[in-house]
Specification:
The chain is an alpha+beta fold. The protein contains 15 helices and 19 strands. Bound molecules: flavin-adenine dinucleotide (FAD).
Protein backbone atom coordinates (compact mmCIF):
# COMPACT_ATOMS: atom_id res chain seq x y z
CA UNK A 1 0.00 0.00 0.00
CA UNK A 2 1.12 3.54 -0.71
CA UNK A 3 2.76 5.15 2.34
CA UNK A 4 1.01 8.53 1.93
CA UNK A 5 -2.41 6.87 1.73
CA UNK A 6 -1.59 4.77 4.77
CA UNK A 7 -0.50 7.77 6.78
CA UNK A 8 -3.59 9.78 5.83
CA UNK A 9 -5.95 6.88 6.54
CA UNK A 10 -4.49 6.01 9.91
CA UNK A 11 -4.07 9.56 11.16
CA UNK A 12 -7.75 10.12 10.38
CA UNK A 13 -8.87 7.36 12.74
CA UNK A 14 -10.34 9.23 15.74
CA UNK A 15 -8.75 6.87 18.27
CA UNK A 16 -5.24 7.28 16.84
CA UNK A 17 -4.20 10.85 16.00
CA UNK A 18 -1.12 12.24 14.25
CA UNK A 19 1.18 11.94 17.23
CA UNK A 20 0.93 8.16 17.25
CA UNK A 21 2.13 7.71 13.67
CA UNK A 22 5.73 7.80 12.56
CA UNK A 23 7.93 6.42 9.82
CA UNK A 24 10.75 4.07 10.56
CA UNK A 25 13.46 2.94 8.16
CA UNK A 26 13.45 -0.84 7.86
CA UNK A 27 17.16 -0.95 8.69
CA UNK A 28 16.33 0.44 12.10
CA UNK A 29 14.00 -2.46 12.67
CA UNK A 30 15.59 -5.64 11.55
CA UNK A 31 18.74 -5.38 9.51
CA UNK A 32 20.66 -8.43 10.66
CA UNK A 33 17.97 -11.12 10.38
CA UNK A 34 17.26 -9.84 6.85
CA UNK A 35 20.91 -10.40 6.01
CA UNK A 36 20.83 -13.88 7.49
CA UNK A 37 17.83 -14.73 5.36
CA UNK A 38 20.09 -14.28 2.38
CA UNK A 39 19.02 -10.80 1.40
CA UNK A 40 22.25 -9.15 0.33
CA UNK A 41 21.13 -5.63 1.15
CA UNK A 42 18.26 -4.99 3.52
CA UNK A 43 15.34 -3.10 2.01
CA UNK A 44 15.79 0.66 2.25
CA UNK A 45 12.06 1.32 2.40
CA UNK A 46 10.27 2.86 5.31
CA UNK A 47 7.63 1.27 7.48
CA UNK A 48 4.71 3.08 9.02
CA UNK A 49 4.66 2.59 12.78
CA UNK A 50 1.54 3.37 14.79
CA UNK A 51 1.67 3.55 18.56
CA UNK A 52 -1.90 3.58 19.92
CA UNK A 53 -2.39 4.87 23.43
CA UNK A 54 -5.06 2.43 24.55
CA UNK A 55 -6.91 -0.74 23.63
CA UNK A 56 -9.54 1.25 21.71
CA UNK A 57 -6.77 2.61 19.49
CA UNK A 58 -5.43 -0.90 18.85
CA UNK A 59 -8.94 -2.07 18.06
CA UNK A 60 -9.48 0.81 15.61
CA UNK A 61 -6.28 0.12 13.70
CA UNK A 62 -6.96 -3.62 13.50
CA UNK A 63 -10.53 -3.01 12.35
CA UNK A 64 -9.26 -0.60 9.70
CA UNK A 65 -6.58 -3.07 8.55
CA UNK A 66 -9.13 -5.88 8.42
CA UNK A 67 -11.46 -3.84 6.22
CA UNK A 68 -8.69 -2.53 3.95
CA UNK A 69 -6.76 -5.80 3.72
CA UNK A 70 -3.65 -4.08 5.09
CA UNK A 71 -0.85 -6.26 6.49
CA UNK A 72 0.02 -5.35 10.04
CA UNK A 73 2.25 -6.71 12.77
CA UNK A 74 2.76 -6.06 16.48
CA UNK A 75 6.07 -4.51 17.52
CA UNK A 76 7.37 -4.73 21.09
CA UNK A 77 10.98 -3.63 21.51
CA UNK A 78 12.21 -5.66 18.54
CA UNK A 79 14.65 -7.73 20.62
CA UNK A 80 13.66 -11.09 19.12
CA UNK A 81 16.58 -12.89 17.51
CA UNK A 82 14.63 -14.81 14.87
CA UNK A 83 13.61 -12.15 12.35
CA UNK A 84 10.12 -11.98 13.82
CA UNK A 85 9.50 -8.36 12.81
CA UNK A 86 8.79 -8.05 9.10
CA UNK A 87 9.54 -4.49 8.03
CA UNK A 88 7.78 -5.06 4.69
CA UNK A 89 4.32 -5.13 6.29
CA UNK A 90 2.06 -2.12 5.70
CA UNK A 91 1.92 -1.04 9.33
CA UNK A 92 3.73 -1.99 12.50
CA UNK A 93 1.61 -1.51 15.61
CA UNK A 94 3.98 -0.53 18.39
CA UNK A 95 2.95 -1.20 21.98
CA UNK A 96 5.33 1.50 23.26
CA UNK A 97 2.54 3.67 24.66
CA UNK A 98 0.69 0.76 26.30
CA UNK A 99 3.16 0.95 29.15
CA UNK A 100 1.07 1.64 32.24
CA UNK A 101 1.18 -0.24 35.52
CA UNK A 102 -2.54 -0.54 36.22
CA UNK A 103 -2.67 -2.47 39.45
CA UNK A 104 -0.45 -4.30 41.92
CA UNK A 105 -2.51 -6.58 44.14
CA UNK A 106 -0.49 -7.43 47.26
CA UNK A 107 -2.93 -10.10 48.44
CA UNK A 108 -3.19 -12.07 45.20
CA UNK A 109 0.41 -11.15 44.37
CA UNK A 110 -0.41 -10.13 40.82
CA UNK A 111 0.46 -7.11 38.71
CA UNK A 112 -1.63 -5.88 35.77
CA UNK A 113 0.29 -3.92 33.15
CA UNK A 114 0.09 -2.60 29.62
CA UNK A 115 1.72 -5.07 27.22
CA UNK A 116 4.27 -2.51 26.07
CA UNK A 117 5.96 -1.99 29.42
CA UNK A 118 9.63 -2.99 29.36
CA UNK A 119 11.17 -5.41 31.82
CA UNK A 120 13.52 -2.96 33.49
CA UNK A 121 10.72 -0.51 34.36
CA UNK A 122 8.41 -3.23 35.62
CA UNK A 123 11.11 -4.95 37.65
CA UNK A 124 12.18 -1.62 39.18
CA UNK A 125 8.61 -0.78 40.19
CA UNK A 126 8.00 -4.19 41.75
CA UNK A 127 11.24 -4.07 43.72
CA UNK A 128 10.27 -0.68 45.18
CA UNK A 129 6.96 -2.19 46.29
CA UNK A 130 8.65 -5.19 47.92
CA UNK A 131 7.93 -7.77 45.21
CA UNK A 132 9.93 -9.47 42.50
CA UNK A 133 9.09 -10.13 38.86
CA UNK A 134 10.67 -13.59 38.69
CA UNK A 135 10.97 -13.36 34.89
CA UNK A 136 14.56 -12.35 34.13
CA UNK A 137 15.44 -12.96 30.47
CA UNK A 138 18.85 -11.62 29.53
CA UNK A 139 16.91 -9.17 27.36
CA UNK A 140 15.03 -7.82 30.42
CA UNK A 141 15.99 -4.23 29.61
CA UNK A 142 15.22 -4.42 25.89
CA UNK A 143 11.96 -6.39 25.72
CA UNK A 144 8.29 -6.02 26.66
CA UNK A 145 5.70 -8.04 28.53
CA UNK A 146 3.71 -8.49 25.28
CA UNK A 147 6.84 -9.72 23.52
CA UNK A 148 7.53 -12.24 26.31
CA UNK A 149 4.03 -13.67 25.98
CA UNK A 150 4.04 -13.67 22.17
CA UNK A 151 7.36 -15.56 22.06
CA UNK A 152 6.75 -17.75 25.15
CA UNK A 153 9.92 -16.37 26.65
CA UNK A 154 11.70 -17.66 29.71
CA UNK A 155 14.11 -16.14 32.19
CA UNK A 156 17.35 -17.06 33.89
CA UNK A 157 15.49 -18.06 37.09
CA UNK A 158 13.20 -20.46 35.24
CA UNK A 159 14.01 -23.31 37.64
CA UNK A 160 12.11 -21.43 40.35
CA UNK A 161 9.55 -19.29 38.50
CA UNK A 162 9.04 -21.19 35.25
CA UNK A 163 8.63 -19.46 31.89
CA UNK A 164 6.21 -16.61 31.14
CA UNK A 165 3.44 -19.20 30.59
CA UNK A 166 3.56 -20.03 34.32
CA UNK A 167 3.40 -16.36 35.38
CA UNK A 168 0.62 -15.24 33.03
CA UNK A 169 -2.74 -15.38 34.85
CA UNK A 170 -4.87 -12.97 32.80
CA UNK A 171 -4.76 -11.00 29.55
CA UNK A 172 -6.53 -8.61 27.23
CA UNK A 173 -5.94 -8.75 23.49
CA UNK A 174 -7.46 -7.50 20.27
CA UNK A 175 -8.17 -10.20 17.72
CA UNK A 176 -7.50 -9.53 14.01
CA UNK A 177 -10.99 -8.19 13.20
CA UNK A 178 -10.65 -5.61 15.98
CA UNK A 179 -12.72 -7.25 18.73
CA UNK A 180 -11.40 -6.86 22.27
CA UNK A 181 -11.08 -10.13 24.21
CA UNK A 182 -10.51 -10.27 27.99
CA UNK A 183 -9.38 -13.31 29.94
CA UNK A 184 -9.97 -12.37 33.57
CA UNK A 185 -7.15 -13.16 36.00
CA UNK A 186 -7.56 -16.57 37.63
CA UNK A 187 -5.33 -18.97 39.56
CA UNK A 188 -6.39 -21.78 37.18
CA UNK A 189 -9.29 -22.72 34.92
CA UNK A 190 -10.63 -25.82 33.23
CA UNK A 191 -13.32 -23.85 31.39
CA UNK A 192 -12.53 -25.03 27.89
CA UNK A 193 -9.56 -24.20 25.72
CA UNK A 194 -6.81 -22.31 27.52
CA UNK A 195 -6.73 -18.92 25.76
CA UNK A 196 -3.75 -17.79 27.83
CA UNK A 197 -1.84 -20.87 26.73
CA UNK A 198 -2.72 -20.11 23.10
CA UNK A 199 -1.47 -16.55 23.39
CA UNK A 200 1.89 -17.80 24.66
CA UNK A 201 4.04 -18.33 21.59
CA UNK A 202 1.42 -16.94 19.19
CA UNK A 203 3.95 -14.43 17.75
CA UNK A 204 1.16 -11.98 16.95
CA UNK A 205 -0.87 -14.43 14.87
CA UNK A 206 -3.93 -14.33 17.17
CA UNK A 207 -3.98 -10.57 17.57
CA UNK A 208 -2.28 -7.90 19.63
CA UNK A 209 -1.90 -8.36 23.37
CA UNK A 210 -2.69 -5.07 25.07
CA UNK A 211 -2.65 -5.94 28.77
CA UNK A 212 -1.41 -8.77 30.97
CA UNK A 213 -1.76 -9.85 34.57
CA UNK A 214 1.32 -11.62 35.88
CA UNK A 215 1.93 -13.46 39.13
CA UNK A 216 4.70 -11.77 41.13
CA UNK A 217 6.76 -13.11 44.01
CA UNK A 218 8.21 -12.03 47.33
CA UNK A 219 11.89 -11.23 47.57
CA UNK A 220 13.50 -14.41 48.91
CA UNK A 221 16.85 -15.29 50.43
CA UNK A 222 19.13 -16.95 47.88
CA UNK A 223 22.34 -18.96 48.20
CA UNK A 224 24.85 -19.30 45.37
CA UNK A 225 27.11 -22.31 44.79
CA UNK A 226 29.88 -22.28 42.16
CA UNK A 227 31.97 -25.24 41.09
CA UNK A 228 34.53 -26.41 38.61
CA UNK A 229 33.42 -29.55 36.76
CA UNK A 230 35.96 -31.73 34.91
CA UNK A 231 33.70 -31.88 31.83
CA UNK A 232 30.17 -31.19 30.54
CA UNK A 233 29.04 -34.76 31.21
CA UNK A 234 29.74 -34.59 34.95
CA UNK A 235 28.23 -31.10 35.10
CA UNK A 236 25.07 -32.33 33.40
CA UNK A 237 24.88 -35.24 35.79
CA UNK A 238 25.01 -32.77 38.70
CA UNK A 239 22.35 -30.53 37.10
CA UNK A 240 20.02 -33.48 36.59
CA UNK A 241 20.47 -34.78 40.14
CA UNK A 242 19.79 -31.29 41.52
CA UNK A 243 16.56 -30.69 39.63
CA UNK A 244 15.23 -34.21 40.08
CA UNK A 245 15.89 -34.20 43.83
CA UNK A 246 13.32 -31.46 44.43
CA UNK A 247 15.71 -28.85 45.87
CA UNK A 248 14.24 -25.32 45.32
CA UNK A 249 16.63 -24.12 42.62
CA UNK A 250 16.71 -20.55 41.31
CA UNK A 251 19.26 -20.36 38.53
CA UNK A 252 21.33 -23.28 37.18
CA UNK A 253 23.99 -22.79 34.49
CA UNK A 254 26.76 -25.02 33.14
CA UNK A 255 29.29 -23.68 30.61
CA UNK A 256 31.55 -25.44 28.16
CA UNK A 257 35.28 -24.71 28.61
CA UNK A 258 35.30 -21.97 25.94
CA UNK A 259 32.42 -20.03 27.48
CA UNK A 260 33.66 -20.70 31.01
CA UNK A 261 36.61 -18.47 30.15
CA UNK A 262 34.26 -15.46 29.91
CA UNK A 263 31.60 -16.50 32.44
CA UNK A 264 34.03 -17.24 35.29
CA UNK A 265 36.54 -15.03 37.07
CA UNK A 266 39.83 -15.34 35.31
CA UNK A 267 42.18 -17.99 36.65
CA UNK A 268 39.72 -19.77 38.97
CA UNK A 269 39.13 -22.81 36.73
CA UNK A 270 41.69 -25.44 35.77
CA UNK A 271 42.24 -25.57 31.99
CA UNK A 272 39.39 -27.20 30.02
CA UNK A 273 37.11 -27.35 33.04
CA UNK A 274 33.49 -26.20 33.05
CA UNK A 275 31.91 -23.58 35.29
CA UNK A 276 28.76 -24.69 37.09
CA UNK A 277 26.74 -22.10 38.99
CA UNK A 278 23.50 -22.79 40.82
CA UNK A 279 21.39 -20.96 43.38
CA UNK A 280 18.82 -22.17 45.88
CA UNK A 281 15.90 -20.05 47.05
CA UNK A 282 13.26 -19.91 49.76
CA UNK A 283 13.04 -18.90 53.41
CA UNK A 284 16.64 -18.70 54.73
CA UNK A 285 16.68 -22.18 56.31
CA UNK A 286 15.31 -23.70 53.10
CA UNK A 287 17.85 -21.88 50.90
CA UNK A 288 20.65 -22.96 53.27
CA UNK A 289 19.53 -26.59 53.32
CA UNK A 290 19.22 -26.51 49.52
CA UNK A 291 22.74 -25.12 49.17
CA UNK A 292 24.09 -27.91 51.40
CA UNK A 293 22.23 -30.50 49.34
CA UNK A 294 23.46 -29.27 45.95
CA UNK A 295 27.00 -28.92 47.27
CA UNK A 296 26.95 -32.63 48.13
CA UNK A 297 25.47 -33.43 44.71
CA UNK A 298 28.16 -31.46 42.88
CA UNK A 299 30.97 -33.09 44.84
CA UNK A 300 29.52 -36.55 44.25
CA UNK A 301 29.54 -35.78 40.50
CA UNK A 302 33.26 -34.94 40.61
CA UNK A 303 33.05 -31.15 40.98
CA UNK A 304 35.28 -28.93 43.08
CA UNK A 305 33.74 -26.01 44.92
CA UNK A 306 34.79 -22.48 44.00
CA UNK A 307 34.18 -19.20 45.78
CA UNK A 308 30.68 -17.75 45.32
CA UNK A 309 32.26 -14.89 43.40
CA UNK A 310 33.58 -17.23 40.69
CA UNK A 311 30.60 -16.48 38.42
CA UNK A 312 30.58 -12.71 39.09
CA UNK A 313 31.62 -11.86 35.49
CA UNK A 314 28.46 -13.52 34.17
CA UNK A 315 26.21 -11.90 36.80
CA UNK A 316 27.61 -8.43 36.12
CA UNK A 317 27.12 -8.69 32.33
CA UNK A 318 23.95 -10.72 32.18
CA UNK A 319 21.56 -8.09 30.82
CA UNK A 320 21.83 -7.13 27.16
CA UNK A 321 21.94 -3.52 26.03
CA UNK A 322 19.92 -2.09 23.09
CA UNK A 323 21.30 -2.98 19.66
CA UNK A 324 23.24 -5.96 21.03
CA UNK A 325 22.52 -8.30 18.11
CA UNK A 326 22.74 -5.63 15.41
CA UNK A 327 26.09 -4.43 16.78
CA UNK A 328 27.45 -7.97 16.84
CA UNK A 329 26.34 -8.40 13.21
CA UNK A 330 27.44 -5.02 11.90
CA UNK A 331 30.36 -6.45 9.92
CA UNK A 332 29.19 -8.28 6.76
CA UNK A 333 31.87 -10.92 7.16
CA UNK A 334 30.87 -11.88 10.68
CA UNK A 335 27.71 -13.55 11.94
CA UNK A 336 26.76 -13.81 15.58
CA UNK A 337 23.81 -16.11 16.19
CA UNK A 338 22.33 -18.27 18.92
CA UNK A 339 20.58 -21.64 18.84
CA UNK A 340 18.62 -22.90 21.86
CA UNK A 341 17.14 -26.36 21.95
CA UNK A 342 15.36 -28.52 24.52
CA UNK A 343 16.80 -32.00 25.05
CA UNK A 344 15.88 -35.02 27.16
CA UNK A 345 18.50 -35.84 29.80
CA UNK A 346 19.36 -39.17 28.20
CA UNK A 347 20.77 -37.53 25.06
CA UNK A 348 21.85 -34.11 26.35
CA UNK A 349 25.54 -34.85 26.92
CA UNK A 350 26.01 -36.74 23.65
CA UNK A 351 24.25 -33.97 21.73
CA UNK A 352 26.48 -31.28 23.23
CA UNK A 353 29.58 -33.33 22.42
CA UNK A 354 28.54 -33.87 18.80
CA UNK A 355 27.74 -30.20 18.37
CA UNK A 356 31.13 -29.30 19.80
CA UNK A 357 32.78 -31.45 17.11
CA UNK A 358 30.51 -30.37 14.25
CA UNK A 359 30.38 -26.63 14.96
CA UNK A 360 33.85 -26.13 16.41
CA UNK A 361 35.48 -25.72 12.97
CA UNK A 362 32.82 -23.18 11.93
CA UNK A 363 32.62 -20.99 15.02
CA UNK A 364 35.56 -19.38 16.79
CA UNK A 365 35.00 -19.62 19.64
CA UNK A 366 32.01 -21.93 20.08
CA UNK A 367 30.14 -21.23 23.29
CA UNK A 368 27.70 -23.75 24.71
CA UNK A 369 25.81 -23.75 27.97
CA UNK A 370 22.94 -25.56 29.67
CA UNK A 371 20.89 -22.83 31.33
CA UNK A 372 17.36 -24.11 32.00
CA UNK A 373 16.67 -27.42 33.71
CA UNK A 374 13.56 -29.54 34.19
CA UNK A 375 12.99 -32.95 35.76
CA UNK A 376 12.76 -34.37 32.22
CA UNK A 377 15.53 -32.51 30.40
CA UNK A 378 17.40 -29.27 29.80
CA UNK A 379 17.97 -26.39 27.42
CA UNK A 380 21.23 -26.39 25.47
CA UNK A 381 22.21 -22.96 24.16
CA UNK A 382 24.90 -22.58 21.50
CA UNK A 383 26.45 -19.22 20.64
CA UNK A 384 27.98 -18.99 17.17
CA UNK A 385 30.78 -16.58 16.25
CA UNK A 386 31.18 -17.14 12.53
CA UNK A 387 33.47 -15.29 10.19
CA UNK A 388 34.17 -15.65 6.49
CA UNK A 389 36.32 -14.12 3.76
CA UNK A 390 33.29 -12.15 2.60
CA UNK A 391 29.55 -11.94 3.23
CA UNK A 392 28.66 -14.95 1.05
CA UNK A 393 31.34 -17.08 2.70
CA UNK A 394 30.16 -16.14 6.20
CA UNK A 395 26.58 -16.86 5.20
CA UNK A 396 27.50 -20.29 3.78
CA UNK A 397 29.31 -21.23 6.99
CA UNK A 398 26.36 -20.04 9.05
CA UNK A 399 23.93 -22.10 6.93
CA UNK A 400 26.18 -25.16 7.34
CA UNK A 401 26.25 -24.64 11.11
CA UNK A 402 22.46 -24.56 11.22
CA UNK A 403 21.98 -27.59 9.02
CA UNK A 404 24.48 -29.62 11.07
CA UNK A 405 22.78 -28.49 14.27
CA UNK A 406 19.30 -29.41 13.07
CA UNK A 407 20.47 -32.85 12.02
CA UNK A 408 22.29 -33.57 15.30
CA UNK A 409 19.53 -32.18 17.50
CA UNK A 410 16.85 -34.18 15.67
CA UNK A 411 18.86 -37.39 16.06
CA UNK A 412 19.05 -36.72 19.80
CA UNK A 413 15.30 -36.16 20.07
CA UNK A 414 15.73 -32.46 20.71
CA UNK A 415 13.23 -29.68 20.07
CA UNK A 416 14.28 -26.51 18.30
CA UNK A 417 13.33 -23.19 19.92
CA UNK A 418 13.39 -23.63 23.66
CA UNK A 419 12.54 -19.93 24.16
CA UNK A 420 13.38 -17.71 21.17
CA UNK A 421 10.34 -18.65 19.08
CA UNK A 422 10.19 -19.16 15.31
CA UNK A 423 10.12 -15.84 13.44
CA UNK A 424 11.08 -15.73 9.77
CA UNK A 425 14.53 -17.23 10.26
CA UNK A 426 13.25 -20.53 11.62
CA UNK A 427 10.04 -20.75 9.61
CA UNK A 428 11.94 -21.80 6.50
C1 LIG B 1 20.84 -10.25 23.91
C2 LIG B 1 19.50 -10.94 23.96
C3 LIG B 1 19.20 -11.79 25.01
C4 LIG B 1 17.98 -12.47 25.04
N1 LIG B 1 17.71 -13.26 26.10
C5 LIG B 1 16.52 -13.91 26.15
C6 LIG B 1 16.21 -14.75 27.28
O1 LIG B 1 16.98 -14.86 28.25
N2 LIG B 1 15.03 -15.40 27.26
C7 LIG B 1 14.15 -15.28 26.23
O2 LIG B 1 13.09 -15.90 26.26
N3 LIG B 1 14.42 -14.49 25.16
C8 LIG B 1 15.57 -13.80 25.10
N4 LIG B 1 15.85 -12.99 24.03
C9 LIG B 1 14.88 -12.89 22.91
C10 LIG B 1 13.85 -11.73 23.03
O3 LIG B 1 14.28 -10.76 23.93
C11 LIG B 1 12.50 -12.28 23.42
O4 LIG B 1 11.99 -13.05 22.35
C12 LIG B 1 11.46 -11.22 23.82
O5 LIG B 1 10.37 -11.89 24.40
C13 LIG B 1 10.97 -10.36 22.68
O6 LIG B 1 10.27 -9.24 23.22
P1 LIG B 1 10.10 -7.89 22.40
O7 LIG B 1 9.24 -6.98 23.19
O8 LIG B 1 11.42 -7.34 22.02
O9 LIG B 1 9.31 -8.42 21.13
P2 LIG B 1 9.55 -8.12 19.57
O10 LIG B 1 10.90 -8.57 19.18
O11 LIG B 1 9.17 -6.73 19.27
O12 LIG B 1 8.47 -9.09 18.92
C14 LIG B 1 8.64 -10.48 18.95
C15 LIG B 1 7.40 -11.17 18.39
O13 LIG B 1 6.30 -10.96 19.27
C16 LIG B 1 5.24 -10.27 18.62
N5 LIG B 1 4.70 -9.32 19.59
C17 LIG B 1 5.38 -8.39 20.31
N6 LIG B 1 4.55 -7.74 21.13
C18 LIG B 1 3.31 -8.26 20.92
C19 LIG B 1 2.02 -7.99 21.46
N7 LIG B 1 1.82 -7.05 22.38
N8 LIG B 1 0.98 -8.73 21.01
C20 LIG B 1 1.15 -9.69 20.07
N9 LIG B 1 2.34 -9.97 19.52
C21 LIG B 1 3.41 -9.27 19.95
C22 LIG B 1 5.89 -9.59 17.41
O14 LIG B 1 4.95 -9.39 16.37
C23 LIG B 1 6.94 -10.62 17.04
O15 LIG B 1 6.34 -11.69 16.33
C24 LIG B 1 17.05 -12.29 23.98
C25 LIG B 1 17.34 -11.41 22.95
C26 LIG B 1 18.55 -10.73 22.94
C27 LIG B 1 18.82 -9.76 21.82
Amino acid sequence: MNTDTLLADISALPQIGDDAVRLLGSQQIDEWPARLQGIAEPSSGTTVVVAPQNVEGVSAILRWAHERGARIQALGMGSNVVGAIDSSVDVLVSTARLDEIHDLDPIDQTVTVGAGIDGRTLDGHLCKEGFVLGHYPQSLHVSTVGGWIATRATGTYSAYYGGIERLLVGAEYVEPAGNIVCVAPRPRSSGGIDLLGLLCGSEGSLGIITQATLAVGRALPERRVCASMPDMRSGLDAQRQMVQSGVPLGLVRLYNPAESLVAAESGVLPESHCLLVATTMGPQAVADAGAAAITATIEAAGGELLAETAADPWFSRRYATPGFMADHNADDRRIFDTIEVALPWVTAAACAEELETALGPLSTPLHQHFSHVYPTGACLYAVLFISGDNQADAHARWATAWSRTLDIVARHRGTLAHHHGIGALRAR
